[in-house]
């Protein structure tokens, strides 16, 4: 068991005692908590009594000096391997039970016992290779393959290397002799490199620049140490990506949840979202739990999804940083996928809600051969690349409005939408850059500030007149 403590606790929690019995749990007794019959003067007496009854009990040697007890703790630590269970420390207790009574306890711990924790066991071994796995979110995870070594109760053959920064910081190289320990006594990790044992000819290790599964470019997360595959059709991320493609906020394909996607991938019926549109209903019907009726319904749902429009399609692509809101702004601005794909980074940054990072992410995504392939196949399948968002007016482009006070003719968000629909920006605070302040009833400090700065103030009616004149 990777974690014996959890395995034991989980087994005891089984509702059916027969199942718990099958787990072959064992125990070793270290204490009598309460005795109704026999009475004892010392701790060792009580454990000897249990042992005589046939209970397995822990080793309980008695020492008469603290020096001897200290030496015994050291010896026990050096000899941990001979126990059939893992230990991470030792406890010294007062043997005399009446002396325990006198010493008593604080609110947190007894005064008659103390624990000594051993430092985690460490072992030297040779790092033979570094393998890189790609997780379902596309993150590349490096793992050390080491010569088998016995460590804290299990045989270890690999260890976590976390990420590129961890490897660089410790300068871990293939061929190095490394020191391993278990973090939290479970996952082995590399503590350090034994530089004196470094063979000649080793080189610093760098994670690949391309995904080891699909070959797409690997990008570092803006906000962290993780390296991530950017492949639109990366097999390692396939189930997750297609489930996202079909999700309610994206193409909203009813009946295409994670389980069905997994089954389609397992049967090798799809290797890309575009494959959804060429699925053979008969093959779909042959999947466990599907049947002809479900296959037909899925077919209808897929057909319906072709007309969702550009906003949802952009959301469905799962481009990093491009959520539903950014997708809507892009869709409104460019109206068709082809116009968006032709946009430069500068043009993208000028769009509402699109920052430099998002713009870069978009340009990169659209320039990848995998993405272009996906787009062309979707085009062939008849998926709409047309925006359903109303195109932005340009009449108020470059103007900034501030709304203040209580509006009576519209809600704040309605007014905001009307202004933004004509290309205006709506801001929350008045500054020299503000073009107009729209003041409703009981307008306060913002109105005062506008008057101080000499910014034109409009009533609601004046704003409406301005909009209808366009
Ligand atoms: Zn990949």
Provide key terms for this protein.
470 residues, alpha/beta, OB fold (Dihydrolipoamide Acetyltransferase, E2P), DNA polymerase, domain 1, 4 domains, 5-stranded antiparallel β-sheet, 4-stranded parallel β-sheet, binds zinc ion
Would you give an account of this structure?
The chain has 470 residues and is an alpha/beta fold. It folds into 4 domains: 22-117, 2-Layer Sandwich (D-amino Acid Aminotransferase, Chain A, domain 1); 121-229, Nucleic acid-binding proteins (OB fold (Dihydrolipoamide Acetyltransferase, E2P)); 232-391, DNA polymerase, domain 1; 400-468, BRCT domain (Rossmann fold), CATH 3.40.50. It is 37% helix and 16% strand. It is built from 19 helices and 13 strands. The protein has helices at 4-12, 17-22, 43-53, 66-78, 97-103, 164-170, 238-246, 258-266, 281-285, 291-305, 310-317, 324-334, 337-341, 345-349, 356-367, 369-381, 412-421, 445-453, 460-468; strands at residues 89-93, 113-117, 122-134, 140-151, 154-160, 177-183, 187-193, 218-220, 227-229, 400-404, 425-427, 436-439, 457-458. The strands form 4 sheets. Strands 5-4-3-6-7 form a 5-stranded antiparallel sheet, with no helix packed on it. α7 (238-246) crosses α8, α7 (238-246) packs antiparallel against α11 (310-317) and α11 packs across α12. The longest helix is centred in the middle third of the chain and has 15 residues, at 291-305. The protein is elongated and about 100 Å long. The termini are far apart. The relative contact order is 0.05. The mean pLDDT is 90. Bound molecules: zinc ion.
């Amino acid at each position: 068991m990777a974690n014996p403590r959890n395995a034991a606790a989980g087994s005891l929690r089984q509702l059916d005692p027969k199942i718990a019995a099958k787990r072959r749990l064992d125990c070793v007794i270290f204490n009598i908590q309460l005795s109704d019959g026999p009475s004892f003067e010392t701790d060792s007496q009580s454990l000897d009594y249990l042992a005589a009854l046939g209970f397995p009990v822990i080793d309980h040697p008695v020492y008469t000096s603290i020096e001897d007890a200290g030496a015994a703790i050291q010896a026990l630590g050096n000899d941990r391997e001979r126990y059939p269970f893992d230990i991470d420390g030792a406890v010294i207790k007062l043997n005399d039970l009446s002396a325990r009574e006198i010493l008593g306890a604080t609110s947190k711990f007894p005064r008659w016992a103390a624990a000594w924790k051993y430092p985690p066991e460490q072992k030297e071994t040779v790092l033979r290779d570094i393998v890189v796995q790609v997780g379902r979110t596309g993150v590349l995870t490096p793992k050390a393959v080491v010569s088998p070594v016995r460590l804290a109760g299990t045989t270890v053959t690999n260890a976590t290397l976390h990420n590129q920064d961890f490897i660089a910081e410790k300068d871990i190289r293939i061929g190095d002799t490394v020191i391993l320990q278990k973090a939290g006594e479970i996952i082995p990790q590399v503590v350090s490199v034994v530089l004196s044992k470094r063979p000649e000819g080793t080189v610093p290790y760098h994670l690949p620049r391309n995904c080891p599964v699909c070959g797409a470019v690997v990008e570092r997360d803006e906000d962290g140490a993780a390296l991530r595959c950017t492949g639109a059709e990366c097999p390692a991320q396939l189930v997750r990506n297609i489930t996202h493609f079909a999700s309610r906020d994206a193409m909203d394909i009813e009946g295409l949840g994670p389980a069905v996607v997994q089954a389609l991938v397992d049967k090798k019926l799809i290797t890309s979202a575009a494959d959804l549109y060429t699925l053979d209903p008969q093959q779909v019907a042959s999947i466990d739990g599907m049947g002809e009726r479900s296959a037909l319904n899925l077919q209808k749902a897929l057909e319906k999804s072709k007309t969702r429009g550009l906003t949802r399609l952009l959301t469905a692509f799962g481009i990093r940083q491009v959520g539903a809101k950014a997708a809507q702004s892009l869709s409104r601005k460019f109206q068709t996928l082809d116009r968006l794909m032709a946009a430069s980074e500068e043009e993208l940054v000028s769009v509402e809600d699109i920052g430099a990072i998002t713009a870069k992410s978009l340009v990169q995504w659209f320039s990848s051969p995998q993405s272009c392939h996906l787009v062309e196949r979707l085009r062939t399948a008849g998926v709409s690349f047309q925006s359903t968002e109303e195109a932005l007016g340009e009449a108020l482009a470059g103007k900034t409005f501030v709304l203040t006070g209580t509006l009576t003719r519209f809600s704040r968000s309605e007014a905001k939408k009307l202004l933004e629909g004509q290309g205006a920006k709506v801001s929350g605070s008045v500054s020299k850059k503000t073009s107009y302040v729209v003041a409703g009833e009981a307008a306060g400090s913002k109105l005062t500030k506008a008057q101080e700065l000499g910014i034109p103030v409009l009533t609601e009616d004046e704003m409406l007149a301005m909009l209808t004149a366009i």
